[in-house]
TrEMBL record:
Keywords: Carotenoid biosynthesis, Oxidoreductase
Pathway given in the UniProt record: Carotenoid biosynthesis
Keyword Transmembrane helix among record annotations: no
NCBIfam families: crtI_fam, hydcarot_desat_CrtD
Protein name: Phytoene desaturase
Presence of keyword DNA-binding: no
Record family assignment: Belongs to the carotenoid/retinoid oxidoreductase family.
Database matches in InterPro entries: Amino_oxidase, Carotenoid/retinoid_OxRdtase, FAD/NAD-bd_sf, hydcarot_desat_CrtD
GO MF term set: oxidoreductase activity
Biological process terms in GO annotation: carotenoid biosynthetic process
Stretches assigned to the Amine oxidase domain: 11-481
Length: 486
């Protein structure tokens, strides 16, 4: 039986392990931390449970497919519910909008609350759907680094239709043309942040993300987002995958231009195939001894500053996902990407899983995950930045939700870009690897295979096709499609 080693038990690593087990490989996953999931993680403290990473799930069939591959049914272990409402939006001047996942209901809501003609939203979502169906096979589910990919008519046709891809203007420029109201433009600009990008620079191709949320739907697994990682871990283990936690892989072993295994702790683990789920910048530095100059790499995605607050109250106005928009969205992103700073009026994302999962907080209380976009770590004075941003967040929440905040916080934990890097070895704490702030971003991400060493493959958010749960799962699929069955 051939052996595969997976370095890292992030979502890309777990999916790759399951796929390799399904190909009859003997699989070992080696993870430096004590738990599976990487960025998809959780904390439990004083009767509160918090997801600490992803909070929104799209394309759940990519998770379910992993169960089917090994002859199991996802629904026996995971209950993934489709949400009626994907988000509640709060604007500085007091307007509020429910973003329903149904395009019909959502477009009516935008018309009645913000005055945006219904047909504008429906037309936009229809175009986004068309764009997704036109591009997904090529850009999300195939390697962009093999000639084979381009040798079929559909892929060629996709590249020959730049009008449909819409890469030459920014997402914001496209949204300004599509919608009359600034508020609706801001909602659709926000989708660039789903892969850590700047809507004022990222290509309009990113409108496909709105298709995922409003046409195919936003989902939530019972038990919270971390349940996905824990169930994938259990699935892999049931199908023979060996996990070694608290074990750091230090180097690769090679012979004749091919990987032969890894050195981890004080052992050598032999392998015919090595799949790395490690951030590619770290991988190059640590495993290939390559110097990585940040300025020569594609621009990193944004990171996040998150406060986890156990609240001894229930907020009436809020739902599972909430966004409190800033007044000047363009300035917010200029500060984030050009000044590596956080605006004094940041857009706040508030995720309260206890709205769906009663067990995530004691009765009468709520678990608030309060996040603002933050620059990737650049040596900023995080102590100052965290305290200052905390004050701004509290002032904004108090005025917009019309409730007192500070006196209701009974538990607090924090996560900064530095912490994210420390825990997951992600370059500068970037959440999604490199950003899509450049028209060529899709082609600049690292391939899913090594051009130097045979048998070495790459999965996860820092390589093609990019960050976010669905794309990490897609990267595992691309890797597995390249490796023959045993
Ligand atoms: P990672 O999660 O980066 O894990 C890599 C693993 O490799 C880690 O466990 C690390 O410990 C291990 N490792 C590294 N080096 C070594 C070594 N030398 N030896 C052994 N192990 C090693 N995505 C969404 O789809 N929706 C969201 O709502 C969303 N929100 C997010 C919010 C936050 C706060 C964060 C942090 C991320 C969010 N994301 C979201 C992004 C998503 O979480 C990531 O894209 C995805 O989880 C990354 O998975 P990965 O496979 O790249 O591995």
């Amino acid at each position: 039986m051939k052996k595969a080693v997976v370095i890292g038990a992030g979502i890309g690593g777990l999916a790759s392990a399951i796929r390799m087990a399904a190909k009859n490989y003997e699989v070992t996953v080696i993870e430096q931390e004590a738990y599976p999931g990487g960025k998809m993680s959780e904390i439990r403290t004083e009767d509160f449970r918090f997801d600490t990473g992803p909070s929104l799930l799209t394309l759940p069939h990519l998770v379910e497919e992993l169960f089917t591959l090994v002859g199991e049914k996802a629904e026996d272990y995971l209950t993934i519910r489709k949400l009626d409402e994907s988000c509640r939006y709060f604007y500085p001047e007091g307007k509020k909008v429910h973003a329903w996942t149904s395009p019909e209901k959502f477009s009516s809501e935008l018309e009645s609350k913000l005055g945006e003609p219904k047909e504008n939203t429906l037309r936009y979502l229809k175009k986004a759907k068309r764009l997704y169906h036109f591009t997904a096979d090529l850009f999300l589910f195939s390697s962009l680094h093999r000639m084979k990919t381009f040798r079929n008519r559909k892929a060629f046709g996709t590249l020959m239709r730049p009008g449909l891809l819409d890469p030459f203007r920014s997402l914001h420029q496209a949204n300004r043309k599509s919608f009359q109201t600034k508020e609706v433009q801001q909602i659709f600009d926000r989708y660039a942040t789903y892969n850590g990008s700047d809507p004022f620079r990222a290509p309009a191709t990113l409108k496909i993300i709105s298709h995922l949320e409003h046409n195919t739907g936003a989902f939530f697994p019972s038990g919270g987002m971390y349940k996905i990682a824990s169930e994938l871990h259990r699935l892999a283990a049931r199908h023979g995958v060996t996990f070694r936690f608290n074990t750091r892989v230090n180097s690769l072993t090679t012979a004749d231009g091919k990987v032969t295994g890894v050195e981890a702790g004080n052992m050598h683990v032999p392998a015919d195939i090595v799949i790395s789920d490690v951030d590619i910048h770290h991988f190059k530095r640590q495993f290939l001894n390559q110097e990585v100059r940040r300025r020569e790499q594609p621009e990193l995605s944004s990171s996040a500053l998150i406060f986890f607050w156990g609240m001894n109250t229930n907020s009436k106005e809020t739902g599972l996902h909430n966004i409190l928009f800033s007044t000047n969205y363009m300035e917010e992103f200029r500060m984030l990407f050009s000044q590596s700073a956080i605006s004094d009026d940041p857009t706040i994302y508030l995720y309260i899983s206890s709205k769906m999962e009663a067990n995530d907080a004691p009765p009468g209380k709520e678990n608030w995950f309060v996040m603002v976009n933050a620059p990737a770590d650049n040596g900023q004075n995080w102590d100052n930045l965290v305290e200052r941003t905390r004050r701004h967040i509290i002032a904004k929440l108090e005025s917009q939700l019309d409730m007192q905040i500070e006196k209701h916080i009974v538990v607090e934990k924090r996560l900064t870009p530095r912490d994210i890097e420390h825990r997951t070895s992600s370059e500068a704490g970037a959440l999604y690897g490199s950003s899509s702030n450049n028209i060529f971003s899709a082609f600049m991400r690292h391939p899913n295979f090594s051009k130097q060493l045979k048998g070495l493959y790459f999965t996860g958010g820092s390589v093609h096709p990019g960050g976010g749960i669905p794309l990490c799962l897609a990267s595992a699929k691309i890797v597995s499609d390249m490796i023959p069955k045993e």
